């Protein structure tokens, strides 16, 4: 019987050297821009206490949390009655105390509360780590993926929201991706819920309208009806969801509709202030008010941000918002926060689709020394040592294999230069340097060879 070919879980991926290089380009770019704006790095564990994560992402998010079975006899504390009832939530609470993190925001809130005496507020941090979600794998949606988060806590200033618009613009401009930033405010959504008479259904409304781009307005209306809204309320909602015109025109209409809603008017004023700050140093990319943008996560309380690529069919590649109450869940009241998360894996997919990665990105070794035998090998090793001291990555082919095989190795690994040294070169104290792209071959002393190679790095 043939052995079964090994594989990996659905929604996870292996990464080749070239793919790693592309991902590192993204990480390096966002890290540099985060640091330019004064953000500092932290890391948190892959696993958190289940109680830390549950109840922070809404009913749908909670279902996507990967739970970790307790060590040892994890069934020992479960009664026979609980087994018979087959209640997943109740059973999970008894056999799982830990879970893989769903995002980086809730662990960050836990970190802030846990280390509040060691932190200087406002605290500006960035974090680049993987997260896990028990989602259905599809294009641009994975069960394991990297997020690049940047947040500031301990400040109510809307200058922070405006700074994130700048950071988003700088990141995607640096990566060569044309984007549009969608902007909204949770307070406006709360005002709309008041306006249609269903203030208590804000979470249901946001969960439903957050799907409008995926399932369309008609299906959203059906879901709102299923969630308990009346036909009259859904009818009052339609003109708002279909509101068109410039951002100022939309805000003027909203100001009229939500005039009696204090929270709604607060949201409108916050958007106006963020847009006014951004106008002082406008982003290169467009920033648009999108009243259908809801981001169905329970912890958002103010600004909501989402970024879409203009030239690729992909969901949001960056998103975030303000969360005034998140640390309060862990016992630290009155600490407001705001941040955005860059989806590194979706960004990678967009860049690959659009051909935005540099052609030489998959090149790691710059110089290969051909191995003709022990004497020639030893002669070349001294040169390789000097190349590495000058920062040039290089390697020696390990065996004195046929020349054709060694040259094929260089070609397949996109190595731009090959060094050859036989009896003639060694007698003259020279090396033959072959440019694999042009075919040019020169005999040079070590220092001249190093200089020539260094100019192409």
Description:
The protein is 43% helix and 18% strand. Among the domains are: 155 residues, 2-Layer Sandwich (BirA Bifunctional Protein, domain 2), CATH 3.30.930.10; 91 residues, Anticodon-binding domain (Rossmann fold, 3-Layer(aba) Sandwich). α8 packs antiparallel against α14. It has 19 helices and 16 strands. The mean pLDDT is 91. It has 457 residues and is an alpha+beta fold. It is elongated, with a radius of gyration of 28 Å. It has an 8-stranded mixed β-sheet with strand order 1-5-6-11-10-9-7-8. It has a 5-stranded mixed β-sheet with strand order 13-12-14-15-16.
Biggest β-sheet, characterized? 8 strands, mixed
Q: Mean pLDDT, rounded to whole units?
A: 91
Structural class: alpha+beta
User: End-to-end distance, in Å?
Assistant: 51 Å
- Can you identify the CATH superfamily of the domain at 15-169? Bira Bifunctional Protein, Domain 2
Strand order of the largest sheet: 1-5-6-11-10-9-7-8
What fraction of residues sit in β-strands? 15-25%
Low-confidence stretches: none
What CATH calls the topology of the domain at 15-169 is: BirA Bifunctional Protein, domain 2
As a percent range, the share of helical residues equals 40-55%
CATH class of the domain at 15-169: Alpha Beta
Output the radius of gyration: 28 Å
DSSP, total strands = 16
Shape from CA axes?
elongated
- Please tell me the CATH architecture of the domain at 15-169 by its name: 2-Layer Sandwich
Instruction: Please give the count of helices.
Output: 19
């Amino acid at each position: 019987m043939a052995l079964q070919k090994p594989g990996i879980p659905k929604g996870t991926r292996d990464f080749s050297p070239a793919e790693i290089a592309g991902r590192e380009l993204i990480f390096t770019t966002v890290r540099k821009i985060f640091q330019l704006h004064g953000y500092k790095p932290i890391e948190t564990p892959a696993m958190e206490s289940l109680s830390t994560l549950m109840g922070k992402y809404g009913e749908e998010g909670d279902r996507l949390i990967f739970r970790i079975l307790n060590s040892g006899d994890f069934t020992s504390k479960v009664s026979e009655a609980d087994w018979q009832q087959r209640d997943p939530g109740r059973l999970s609470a008894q056999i799982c105390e830990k879970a893989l993190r769903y995002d980086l925001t809730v662990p960050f809130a836990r970190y802030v509360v846990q280390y509040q005496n060691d932190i200087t507020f406002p605290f500006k941090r960035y974090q680049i780590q993987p997260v896990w979600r028990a989602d259905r794998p599809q294009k641009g949606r994975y069960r394991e993926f990297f997020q690049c988060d940047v947040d500031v806590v301990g400040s109510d200033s809307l200058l922070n929201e405006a700074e994130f618009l700048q950071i988003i613009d700088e990141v995607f401009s640096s990566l060569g991706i044309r984007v549009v930033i969608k902007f909204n405010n949770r307070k406006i959504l709360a005002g709309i819920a008041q306006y249609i008479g269903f203030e208590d259904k804000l979470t249901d409304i946001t969960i439903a309208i957050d799907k409008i781009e995926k399932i369309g307005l008609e299906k959203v209306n059906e879901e709102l009806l299923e969630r308990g809204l009346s036909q009259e309320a859904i009818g009052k909602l339609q003109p708002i969801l279909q509101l068109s015109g410039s951002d100022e025109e939309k805000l003027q209409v909203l100001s009229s509709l939500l005039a009696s809603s204090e929270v709604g008017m607060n949201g409108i004023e916050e958007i106006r202030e963020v847009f006014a700050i951004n106008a002082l140093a406008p982003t290169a990319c467009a920033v648009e008010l999108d009243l259908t943008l809801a981001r169905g996560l329970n912890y958002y309380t103010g600004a909501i941000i989402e970024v879409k690529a203009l030239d690729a069919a992909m969901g949001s590649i960056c998103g975030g918002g303000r969360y005034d109450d998140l640390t309060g869940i862990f016992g630290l009241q009155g600490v407001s926060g705001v941040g955005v998360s860059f989806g590194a894996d979706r960004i990678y997919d967009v860049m690959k689709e659009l051909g935005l990665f540099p052609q030489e990105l998959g090149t790691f070794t710059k110089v290969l020394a051909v191995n003709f035998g022990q004497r020639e090998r030893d002669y070349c090793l001294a040169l390789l040592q000097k190349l590495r001291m000058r920062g040039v990555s290089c390697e020696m082919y390990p065996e004195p294999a046929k020349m054709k095989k060694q040259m094929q190795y260089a070609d397949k690994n996109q190595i731009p230069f090959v060094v050859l040294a036989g009896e003639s070169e060694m007698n003259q104290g020279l090396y033959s340097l072959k440019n694999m792209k042009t075919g040019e071959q020169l005999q040079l002393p070590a220092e001249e060879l190093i200089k020539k190679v260094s100019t192409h790095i």
